Fold each of these.
Amino acid sequence: MRPIRLLLLAAAFAPLCSSFGQNIRATGKVNEFYAANCSNCHGKKLEGGLTPAQNKVPSLLDDEWLHGGDDESIAKSIRTGYPEKEMPPWSATMTDKEIRAMVVYIREQQFAFRRGDTKIDKRPDDLVAKSKLHNFEVHPWVSNLVEPWGLTFLPGNKAVVTEKKGYLYLIDNGKLAARPLIGAPLADTGGQAGFYDVVPHPDYAKNGWLYLAYSDLQKRDGQPVSLTRIVRGKIKEKENTFADVETVYQAPLELYPKAAGVHFGGRIAFDKAGYLFFTIGERGTGTNAQDLTVPMGKVHRIHDDGRVPADNPFRKDPKALPTIWSYGHRNPQGLAYNSATGDLYDIEHGPRGGDEVNLVLPGKNYGWPVISWGMDYPGTPIGEGLTAKEGMEQPVKYWVPSIAPCGANFYAGDLFPKWKNNLFVASLVGEQLVRLEIKGDKLGGDEMLFRDLGRIRHVIGGPDGALYVLLPTKISRITPAE
Ligand code: HEC
């Protein structure tokens, strides 16, 4: 049977076979090049996956092609990329010969897949693991979610979770509501746009305000534009609604970038004094981060009702936006306040390498896109190619290569006493949970706790002292193990 089948397959790919072995020999290491440059998006076995921002990346095995499946079309896809969809162009990094070898490599992997030689493993649901200070186990808590993004706990064994595609769900005693809350705003959900963080007011028990960050869709001159906006509302459980919604932060319409796209930020944190901090990414335009007249690439600070604090650092600068607290940020998808020390940290995606944890201080410049520990996607230097510069802050921690960090929180529970006040960071591409011992601008311990359950979007401690992680389709709960 086998030789005949192979022969048939070979016939189907006749045009390719003419130059088969030759190109593979020309580069030799095409598989290593794939593993180093493509696998983090297209999957280790070319099975497809998600980009750092969790957009879908197609399988290269199934012979279904978005942009044509003949050799030249595939080569063209690799050469020019689809930057608006996060597929980088490779023409500056790969020679034509190497691109040709990559096409052949993709064909070989397709053969293996059709023969049934490629096993694509399903991720486990459960895990028992040892770590330096505590042993722990991980089990699903709430399943059947689609891209959960933000999670918060409310009194009475309740929680609220956002889904990226624009939904807000109540969780009651670990049970997900059958339907999303009605009355939540309509969001832009293209690209990385959607619903982001959800955080209760520090006095939630008294006032019931719940804050939501999302990408607000508007029209300007007939064109769709969108930008991160913060609203607050109150949950009416009987009616399953998000009611009394009011805007807390919205930028002037003329500053909204084109809709969809990338780097919206979207985390919210309150400090002990009740100030509200939130992040907006630079929307793929690095220069925004250094421009104090636009809200992109910044951490902002406002009062709980949206008023601008009188002592904000740029309040007296007539050209700067008064809500800006710090700038030079790329895509801060994590924002964590340590209530034990009063320190605020942002966690941001680097370009390719150079993910950062920063101690966020008022008026400071965190350097993007002028300085970075990473490089551009196709492997070229960023900005001035510098990692440090006078007047620009250094991260407390950076990752090279990138783990694509996202949500983060300090642990304040009692179930894991030795983890108290440690910073937990979720990672998407790295699929790992990281524990950092951070004090001020000093990094102590640094430990990867587990990986391989899938991409982790966020991590937060619950009132029960457990840690909760947001995986692609569920929330899992971390508790102590023997
Ligand atoms: C940062 C993520 C990312 C990386 C890295 C990446 N890709 Fe892609 N790639 C994508 C996405 C997303 C698409 C789908 C684009 C679209 O929807 O139009 C894509 C599309 C493609 C396609 C076209 C598929 C089709 O269905 O027509 C090919 C071929 C491809 N990639 C090959 C590669 C190769 C080879 C590498 C490494 C040299 C690579 N990609 C690296 C994200 C990535």
Amino acid sequence: MSKRHQTKPAGTGRSDRLPASRREVLLGGAAVASTALIGFGGGATLPRPALAKAPTAQTLKLGNFEITVVSDGHLMMPARLAAPDVPDAERNAALAQGGQSGGEMAKPPTNVTLIKTGDDVILIDAGSGPNFMPTAGKLSANLDAAGIDPDSITKVVFTHGHPDHLWGVLDDFEEEARFANATHLIGANEWDYWFSEDAEKGLPADRATFVPAARRRITAIEGKAQRIKAGDEIIPGLSVFDTPGHTQGHLSLQLTAGGDNLVVLGDALIHPIISFEHPDWRPAADHVPEQAVETRKKLLEKLVAEKSRVIGYHLPFPGIGRVEKKDGAYAYVAAG
Ligand SMILES: [Zn+2]
């Protein structure tokens, strides 16, 4: 469909051009590519330093799985919402550790994970789509730049139903499923929460509009959707487990291959300092704050015990790293 290609810059139809995902490839956690082959009008290709433009896709391997993190852009939100009920001085000190100022807008990235193995191409969350924030909704363009055809995606798995994870499920006209050939897998608890009579009472008051918006999108893809629950295997080696609190039915995914573990966190851990070093602080975005605290503590302990790699949807792009114990709490250690 032509609209899928309209974001391509002129000249990218050349068959000898490397897809963007190859330029910024990460293999086994180490950055290996720093140059790109750029095509010129005369047909020659010359090595040049990597483009100054921020990367929008990175790839790593786990056994037979090829995992690519593709950017959907970023959100804009007041930095204080990372822990609004913590005294300003404490919160600002934690934000400063992550290079943020407490008074400014935070720009958390939105990192969408794509897992390829055999015939399956599995997308985890669908990004924001065109109508949430102007800085987000870049997934289609970045999939295209990485050489990934949306029609090749066989499954879309949702961690939860917030706009930055769900709203991109429909095309730019908000009518048809963007990933036309995919089965859409939604946690049964999450599905039931958004359709429950008192759903609006279960989320922060300024977010009441999220309820009809989530219902409309889930209804639009219902014919292509299946309900899943903790313990279900999406494909051999990839399963989901409960991480409730951020939303009532939030799921994370665990990928196991050749003795290695990788957990796709969704929004169970969202901030590179606060979620790890202060897991009992309460971000404004959590629907059930006490449950989210409990989930974070359990999850952090599991990630350390299993020496898991993690991919965080809102951790600094590409959001790939590990968790270590630090001073009675934890620390996020970015890969590479
Ligand atoms: Zn999110």
